[in-house]
Amino acid sequence: MTEHLILASGSQARRELLRNAGLAFAAEPARVDERAIENGLPDDLRTPQGVAEQLAIAKAREVSARHPAAIVIGCDQTMSLGDQLFHKAPDRAHAHATLKALCGQTHHLNSAVCLVRDSDVLWSHVGIARMTMRDFSSTFLEEYLDRNLVRILGSVGCYQLEGEGIQLFDAFDGDYFTILGLPMLPLLATLRTLGINHA
Q1: pLDDT tens, residue order, the chain (199 aa)
Q2: 76 belongs to the catalytic site
């Protein structure tokens, strides 16, 4: 019998990644307060990687509670510069501040994925990508925000590599799927091990 698979995310990009890989799944966004969960974590889990993993697990468990026996994929991505965690910018001023802080620096995208069934964590993984932004001018930054503001407010780093955001970078080191927010290769391998992915 094939297990029922649910993606605990409303992300269109994540849905497309799973669909393109040939997986049969349902999608149901989790209803959680991310900042409350983050603020309630003990100090040893409040690292960029720890926050991403715990948020992914919390999202998967919330959906799992509504779907007994289903296997739920939970995901979350944090962005960090050193020990500083960044969140999605609510407006232009915050987006400007984020991109000014990242300009000429190497930051990390920490992409967590987990599998949960009946609220039990079956597996979890955090992929890390190193992203190096070029030292762009203030003029370019203002023009970039003029053209892209609406789209980038939904992205934690205020960029989308599949769009003009690629112009912000000199280099990146890491799995492309991790950058997009869902480490596909370890996820697919684990689903195969569990007998859910028959590829």
Answers
A1: 346 999 999 888 899 999 999 999 999 999 999 999 999 999 999 999 999 999 999 999 999 999 989 999 999 999 999 989 998 899 999 999 999 999 999 999 999 999 999 999 999 999 999 999 999 999 999 999 999 999 999 888 999 888 899 999 999 999 999 998 999 999 999 999 988 866 5
A2: yes
SS3 string of the chain? CCCCEEECCCCHHHHHHHHHCCCCCEECCCCCCHHHHHHCCCHHHCCHHHHHHHHHHHHHHHHHCCCCCCEEEEEEEEEEECCEEECCCCCHHHHHHHHHHHCCCEEEEEEEEEEEECCEEEEEEEEEEEEEECCCCHHHHHHHHHHHHHHHCCCCCCCCCCCHHHHHEEEEECCHHHHHCCCHHHHHHHHHHCCCCCC
| Reported pTM | 0.90
Could you tell me which residues come within 8 angstroms of residue 187 by beta carbon, excluding any fewer than 6 positions away? 73, 113, 115, 125
Cα distance between residue 55 and residue 20, in whole Å:
25
Q: Name the catalytic one among 44, 76, 170, 173.
A: 76
Q: Which tens digits make up the pLDDT trace of 73-102?
A: 999 999 999 989 998 899 999 999 999 999
Q: In the structure encoding, which two tokens stand for residue 170, read together?
A: 């000199």
Domains within the chain, CATH numbers bracketed: 5-193 (3.90.950.10)
